[in-house]
Amino acid sequence: MGFPFSRMRRLRSTPGLRSMVRETTLQPANLIMPLFVVPGERVKREIKSMPGQFQLSVDQVVDEGKKLRDLGIPAILLFGIPEYKDESGSSAWDDKGIIQRALRGLKESVPELLLMTDLCFCEYTSHGHCGILKGHELQNDATLEIIVKQTLSHARAGADFVAPSGMLDGAVGAMRQGLDESGFSNVGIMAYAAKFASSFYGPFRDAVASAPSFGDRKSYQMDPANAREALREVALDIEEGADIIMVKPALAFLDIIAKVKQEFGMPTAAYNVSGEYAMIKAAAEKGWIDGERVMLETLLGIRRAGADIIISYFARDFAALYQQGKGML
Q1: What three-state secondary structure class fits 43?
Q2: Catalytic residue at 195?
Q3: CATH no. for 24-323
Q4: Partners of 271 in the beta sheet?
């Protein structure tokens, strides 16, 4: 029945009513905080293109892990900037490497945190591409062999979840087989199942010095124009054993998040990436937007699209607001 009997505004009239009928919720438990680990001690170096984000030495990562735990954030995702780089990215599977040291330190000091690690080679290779090259072409199957080495090294160091981000064909299956055969059947896989070749990654590449020395990554990351292909990619990763599937980036691909959640009903993550974060921070610094409110709208929008989990550089800021009772618009 229409107006005047149906008055939609009645349920918006007070904060209590709005809270009672709210369809989408957001809390720290939905968030994963990415952290960047570098060699050294007492290192906390701000990333210029990502205000409020830092390259952290292992001791500082442990301290940050404790703060995130106390804010109610259940998980972190680690990225490493290694001591050395070479053609094959061999420091990625060095048991004494930067990520492995961070895992051991966190597992000892903050055992409550769920420890996730990004598995790719762009941070570790001298050429900045995501695996072994032949000429200028990434060799998929040869890279699978070394990603299993990286996977097992992270598992030995204490990773609870590993997250392959290179969009290699067959990576999830190879990793799952390697983990199971080596006694790590309880280590989960969060697959970057639909990762698009996006221009939103720029600040991240500054953070980890991973820009390719030639060419781009369009031959292995997805064409932003393709939605049906994303569903095929997700289906393959689920078939190969992924426990959580991810869409990356988030904001320009909310339709993909929604399609993936509706099609598969799997635990679904979305990565609110560095460029999305940096744009909001830059506009807020200029005074053009209310940064806190836009952050909240952004995270709610990603949740509303269907993401159960959001990987976001805003995780710490949101959790702090939430503790103050300000975590909702």
Answers
A1: coil
A2: yes
A3: 3.20.20.70
A4: 311
Tell how strand 161-164 and strand 44-46 pair up: unpaired
Q: Is 149 a catalytic residue?
A: no
**166 touches 130 (CB < 8 A):** yes
Q: Tokens 């909001």 sit at which residue? A: 280
Q: What residues contact residue 129 under an 8 Å CB cut-off, 6+ apart?
A: 121, 122, 138, 212, 215, 217
pLDDT tens figures, 97-139:
999 999 999 999 999 999 999 998 888 887 777 777 888 788 8
Residue pair 122/90 in contact (Cβ under 8 Å)? The answer is no
pLDDT at 214: 67
> Which is the catalytic residue, given 85, 195, 261, 281?
195
Does this model's pTM top 0.70? My answer is: yes
DSSP state of 223: P
Of 248, 259, 261, 281, catalytic = 248
Tokens of 45: 């170096």
Q: Do residues 78 and 117 lie in contact, with contact meaning Cβ atoms separated by under 8 Å?
A: yes
Instruction: List, as one string, the DSSP characters of 291-324.
Output: HHHHHHHHHHHHHHHT-SEEEETTHHHHHHHHHT
Q: What does the alpha-carbon distance between residue 295 and residue 285 come to, in Å, rounded to a whole number?
A: 13
Domain ranges of the chain: 24-323
